[in-house]
Give the backbone structure.
Amino acid sequence: MITVGGFLDIISKDRSWTAGEDFGNEGDVLLRKNCARILHRFLQKVKNEPDEIYDLPSSSDIRDIYDCRICAPHIVQVTAKGIMLPQTTGCLMLFCGDKEVREDEAVEYVKRLENRNARQKLSVELQ
């Protein structure tokens, strides 16, 4: 598993963009919902990447998308952009926001953050 601080270090050694943000304690284990928030805020504040406005996943696509209402807009954006994908359980897609992020997953998310060609578009054809 990776910590919040460890993930912030992978994204950028310059932490000035985190001023005013509450991503949790640096030593906290990184959860998928917090990871989505950090990635999305980095895209907004550092990359100046606009939010997606088309083909956004909904709660009928990802059933647990609103389990964390504060995290929901961030989850929607990182899934729509193909940086983080929901997990498929049978015919259900779940984001599993309370699941811990492994270091290899964190590295992959940062690759997708930096390289749009590495992103994987969400397929909602399981419905």
The first strand starts at residue 87 and ends at 89. The longest helix spans residues 32-45. The two ends are 32 Å apart (CA to CA).
